[in-house]
Specification:
Elements (H helix, E strand, L loop, with lengths): L1 H21 L3 H25 L2 H28 L4
Helix pairs in contact: 1-2, 2-3
Length: about 80
């Protein structure tokens, strides 16, 4: 079951990254990278659920926070051309 789920998530990441490369605007590309990061968090959570949950779930939470903060920083930089 976990192999099927992991395969489907990797297929989703491939489709998302294809959309990111082909996206007509910069915002489509940012959304694609953010969605791929979310899929990576789900993969880490799945791996943590089927092995030792403590370490991998904490790692997934930290990665999700980094993904969110990076997306907000990139969008702010694109809008204002500065992070200040």
């Amino acid at each position: 079951m976990k192999l099927v789920t992991a395969t489907l998530l990797l297929l989703a990441v491939a489709i998302i990254l294809f959309r990111g490369v082909k996206g007509p605007t910069i915002y489509d590309r940012i959304l694609a990278v953010n969605s791929a990061g979310t899929c990576a968090v789900i993969l880490v959570c799945q791996f943590g659920f089927f092995s030792e949950p403590g370490f991998f779930l904490d790692t997934a939470l930290v990665y999700a926070l980094i993904n969110f903060i990076a997306t907000i920083a990139i969008l702010k930089f694109i809008e204002h051309r500065s992070l200040a």
